Amino acid sequence: MSDETVAAARPESCLADLTKAYPDCEKCGLAWDALDPNPPACRPMTFGRIRARLGAEIDRAMSSHDRLVGMRAEGIKQANPMPELSRAIELRAILRFIDRVSTNEAILDILNPRRKAARDDG
Ligand SMILES: [Zn+2]
């Protein structure tokens, strides 16, 4: 597949550097292998996607924490469950922050000025 074909599948707003072996687009929250014949289509990052990712990471941290608690209980002294618990707590704080931001009308207007303009027009 040529670079032109890949580039044509990207919206103008895409931030991916298609000259890289592993292009990524922070705006869309995507990364892919440049050799992939079917690269993912760009789609804007949403609060829903951020929440889902954070939820999955919190679950992963708590699973790891639980596994390390079990290892510690079995007498494996090197097993330290605390870093994974700290990670889960910090991710939960980020999730609460996202929830507050995503439900605050003033912040949403700042993040998407067209949203406010459309409301002002209507
Ligand atoms: Zn993109």
Short description:
With about 120 residues, this protein is mainly alpha-helical. The protein has two domains: about 1-45, no CATH class; about 45-115. It contains five helices and two strands; from the N terminus they run H-E-E-H-H-H-H.
What does this structure look like?
This protein starts with a helix and ends with a helix. It folds into two domains: 1-45, no CATH class; 47-116. Mean pLDDT is 89; it is low at 1-8. Strands 1-2 form a two-stranded antiparallel sheet. It is mainly alpha-helical. It has five helices and two strands, in the order αββαααα. The longest helix is centred in the middle third of the chain and has 27 residues, at 47-73. Residues 14-16, 25, 27-28, 42 line the site of zinc ion.
